[in-house]
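agent> Task received from the user: take the single chain below, predict its 3D structure, and emit structure tokens. No templates, no multimer pairing.
agent> Plan: (1) validate residues, (2) run structure prediction, (3) serialize to tokens, (4) report one or two observations.
agent> Step 1 OK, no nonstandard residues flagged.
tool_call: predict_structure(input=
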Amino acid sequence: MKKNIPLFSYVIVLGSLLSCNPSNNIHALDNESDLTILDSNSDGMINPFEAFDALMVLQKEHGNELSIHDISTMAAEMKEEEEAELKEMFEEFDVNQDGKVEIQELSDDMSDFAEMMDTDTDGLVSLDEMTSFDVEDALLASEEEIHERIANLFLEHKATNEIELKNIAEEKRGRYEEWDADRNGKVSKEEAYEFMMADNTPIQFSVSGKTAFMKGVITAALPTKVLQLFFDHPEVDTIEMITVPGSIDDEANLRAALYVNKMGLTTKLNARSVVASGGTDFFLCGKKRIVEVGAKLGVHSWGGGAVPAIEVPKDDPVHEKYLDFYKKVGVPIEFYWYTLEAAPAEEIHMMTPAEMEIYKVRK
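)
tool_result: status=success, residues=363
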């Protein structure tokens, strides 16, 4: 583990904040306070590691010296930029410019989100409804909802105890392969439950020796948790990913992954690991990457735009953050274009051993 990297020094200094504040949190003054720029998960509290992550982002964008005035100005600028981006996105979907987005006109991967945003259930989404939509809260289902989904799923497939993968259409099989923990070609209710619970629980790390075991779905809190892992467990040199189905915050995911890359940690998939989508991106951050035989690594196109990602011109700036990330972690940029073609946003493709070799997944 490369402890001489400046990032680690910053984390050590941050320890003084923790020792002065046993609760590990600082109250944000109010919703209009400049301090809210440090509250990335908008819960009204500022975890010191959360603040550290936010300050590093500001430092990267605006230079090494930040005054109180700078932070105040940037807080206002960021709020304006976020509002402008959201308005631009809304206008992109609002084809006839009538101030409403018709759900039935959206692509499959966006219609589900739109239905969640449609709080008045009129089949239309307004800018206000889109602005007030909490992605994380909407996507993380309760245990009761998970049991209901499983019951409906087995009813749909006319299955009592197990769903056989061979009976699933090949283009849709990838999603079910993720759930097949014992690799027997069948999905039991217990396997579906375990996977869905991981997919609805924010990332958790558990440490044993020099290994941190990672499980859950990636949210905006991941950078905070990664930085805290560095501070609490400087002995850790490997992150072993167990079940990481994906991400609901790509910006946070890529940022956290680069922290891990700078620290020189190894990422590992064991024979029963199931990692996909944004989880795959995180795995690729390892300075050394281990994939045991039997591990499942899934890829697909990102979604959320008015047109499928594969149809967005290659010179469009929307691709840059991903291309830049793959360059930094030593993955061929061809891998990015491959993921867009491998499966649409609503499906998943499990990489073959040959594909892992082509795109240098192991390192």
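agent> Step 4: summary for the user.
Residues 68-93 form the longest helix (26 residues).
agent> Done.
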